[in-house]
Specification:
Length: 179
């Protein structure tokens, strides 16, 4: 069985999903791939303990505190490659940034490969089903481009500014699929 609820955030409504024990999804309303991994019939259950924990986590986050990702049981649905990428995302500190290329190099090393496609990494980052908590917004292009956020570049900027990221070397892409 799958459960859902909504959280009212400064970015707009956020849908949360759970398998009953762990958080399986967090999507800003209207984001690309919205609730794509939420399968089966959803039962609205705002009082579910994981949702209570997730709302408290999000309250702390949006108040400028830095709650630990490990404070929440997470169970994002995805294959081995995506899971490996999402694990790397969980290691990016508040206010920190990494590039798609950085992640590609780490994944290549983990898989004993000479190289890995940054585009493949971008696909995994873009399909992160637990945005904000698994901080895919902290990934930027090698040149400082704010490319690639399924919730929208405007929301990526707001999240990075909220976390105190120095935005002076970052820029909005002029064209591309990330817009």
């Amino acid at each position: 069985m799958s459960y859902s609820t909504y959280y009212s955030s400064p970015l707009g409504p956020i849908m949360l999903t759970s398998d009953g024990d762990s958080l399986t999804g967090l999507w800003i309303e209207g984001q690309k791939y919205f609730a794509r991994t939420a399968t089966g019939e959803m039962t609205e259950k705002p009082s579910l303990p994981i949702f209570v924990l997730a709302r408290k986590w999000l309250d702390k986050y949006f108040k400028g505190q830095r709650p630990a990702i490990m404070d929440l049981p997470l169970a994002p649905k995805g294959g081995e490659f995506r899971q490996a990428v999402w694990q790397i995302l969980c290691e990016i500190p508040y206010g920190g940034l990494v590039t798609y290329g950085d992640i590609a190099k780490r994944i290549a090393g983990q898989m004993n490969k000479a190289s890995m496609s940054s585009q493949a990494v971008g696909g995994a980052v873009g399909h992160n089903p637990i945005s904000i908590i698994i901080p895919c917004h902290r990934v930027v292009g090698t040149n400082g481009s704010l490319t690639g956020y399924a919730g929208g570049i405007d929301k990526k900027v707001k999240l990075l500014e909220h976390e105190g990221v120095d935005m002076s070397r970052l820029f909005m892409p002029q064209k591309g699929t990330a817009l």
